[in-house]
From TrEMBL:
Name of this protein: Esterase
This protein's UniProt keywords: Signal
Signal peptide residues on this chain, from the entry's feature table: 1-17
C-alpha cells in the first residue's frame, strides 16, 4: 500500500518582536502531502532540550489553516478568522509553561472536511495513521509526547487514527475533542480508549454543549443521537471510572487522577455554542487541564485570556 511521504519546506523564523499575521503564516513550515492534505507547523522560535509536546490539530469543517490560526478582523476579513484563535491560544500556553516546547501541527485537507475526506479517500484511516507516525518521527529525537485534538469535523481525523490500529501507542498522551465527538462509536472505540487510559500519563479532554435543544432554520440542529451532547455523554459512561458532578451550568465527568475531564455545557437558552467553546479558552483548557497550570491566568468559558496575543 502506498502512503504519502512528508516533504517539508522550511522557512526561517526570526527571533524578536511578535510577527504580524501575514508574515507569521509565511514563516511557518508547510508540508504538501498526497491526497490533498496540507500540514502547517507552528514551532517555537527555538526548540531546546526541554520536554516537548506535539499537538496535531485537525481543522473544523469549512476552515482554512489561516482562519484557524486566527487574526484581528479587518473590515474585509472573513468572520472565520475570529472564532478559534489557535495561534494566539498556543502563544498563551507557551508563556504560561515556559519549560516545555509546544509544537502545533495544523491538519487541513482540500475538501475542508475530515469526515468527507475520509469517505472519499481509499484507505483513509491507514493514511491518517502513517501521517501521524511521520510527524512523530520528525521530532523523535526530542522524545516528545504526542497529542491529538480537533474541533467539529476534526474529531473524525482522531477517530480515523484510533480505528487504524489495534492499540494506541505509548507516546500518545492526550486526546482532545472540542465539540468533536460526532463519530464516537462504542463498538469501535470503547475498548481501545479504556485500555489506553489505564496508563497514568494519558488523559482525554472533551468539551461539548447541549446541541440537542438547538433549532436552526426551523429544524433540530442535530438528531437525537447524532450530536456531541449525546455522543460525549455516551463516551464518558462507556469509559467508566469517572466521577459525575453537576452544577447549574455544567455536567462534569472526572477521573480519579483529575487529569481526564468531560465538560458539557447545559445551554438552557438553546444557543449555538459550537465555535464559542473553542474561543472561550477551549484549546488552552485542553492543554492545561490536569496540570499544575490549570486555571493559571485563564478560565474556561470566560473571556478570552489570549487577547493580547492575537496578530493583526
Amino acid at each position: 500500500m502506498k502512503y504519502c511521504l512528508i516533504i517539508l519546506f522550511f522557512a526561517s523564523i526570526s527571533a524578536g518582536a511578535q510577527l504580524p499575521f501575514d508574515q507569521a503564516m509565511q514563516n511557518m513550515p508547510v508540508a504538501k502531502l498526497d491526497h490533498g492534505v496540507t500540514l502547517t507547523f507552528d514551532e517555537p522560535k527555538s526548540i531546546s532540550s526541554k520536554p516537548t509536546k506535539i499537538i496535531l490539530y485537525a481543522l473544523p469543517n469549512g476552515n482554512t489553516t489561516a482562519q484557524t490560526f486566527g487574526k484581528k478582523l479587518g473590515k474585509a476579513d472573513d468572520w472565520h478568522f475570529d472564532i478559534q484563535h489557535i495561534g494566539a491560544q498556543t502563544k498563551f500556553v507557551r508563556d504560561v509553561d515556559i519549560n516545555t516546547n509546544y509544537i502545533v501541527v495544523y491538519l487541513e485537507n482540500n475538501l475542508k472536511s475530515w469526515p468527507q475526506w475520509r469517505r472519499q479517500t481509499n484507505n483513509s484511516d491507514s493514511i491518517i495513521l502513517q501521517m501521524v507516525n511521520d510527524v512523530y518521527k520528525k521530532y523523535a529525537n526530542l522524545s516528545p509526547q504526542l497529542m491529538l485534538s480537533g474541533h467539529s469535523g476534526g474529531g473524525s481525523f482522531i477517530f480515523g487514527y484510533i480505528n487504524a490500529q489495534a492499540k494506541l501507542p505509548k507516546y500518545l498522551t492526550r486526546l482532545g475533542f472540542l465539540d468533536a465527538t460526532y463519530g464516537y462509536e462504542t463498538e469501535k472505540h470503547q475498548q481501545k480508549l479504556t485500555t489506553w487510559l489505564l496508563e497514568k500519563e494519558n488523559a482525554i479532554q472533551v468539551i461539548a454543549y447541549n446541541d440537542s435543544v438547538v433549532v436552526y432554520n426551523g429544524k433540530p440542529l442535530v438528531s437525537a443521537t447524532g450530536g456531541t451532547w449525546y455522543r460525549s455523554k455516551l463516551m464518558a459512561r462507556d469509559l467508566g471510572n469517572f466521577k459525575f458532578e453537576e452544577t447549574q451550568d455544567f455536567l462534569f465527568w472526572k477521573d480519579k487522577r483529575n487529569t481526564s475531564l468531560f465538560t458539557l455545557i447545559k445551554n438552557p437558552e438553546a444557543k449555538i455554542f459550537h465555535t464559542v467553546l473553542v474561543e472561550r479558552n477551549g484549546f488552552i483548557h485542553f492543554l492545561l487541564n490536569g496540570t499544575k497550570f490549570l486555571n493559571k491566568n485563564y478560565k474556561f468559558w470566560d473571556k478570552r485570556a489570549y487577547e493580547s496575543y492575537i496578530l493583526e
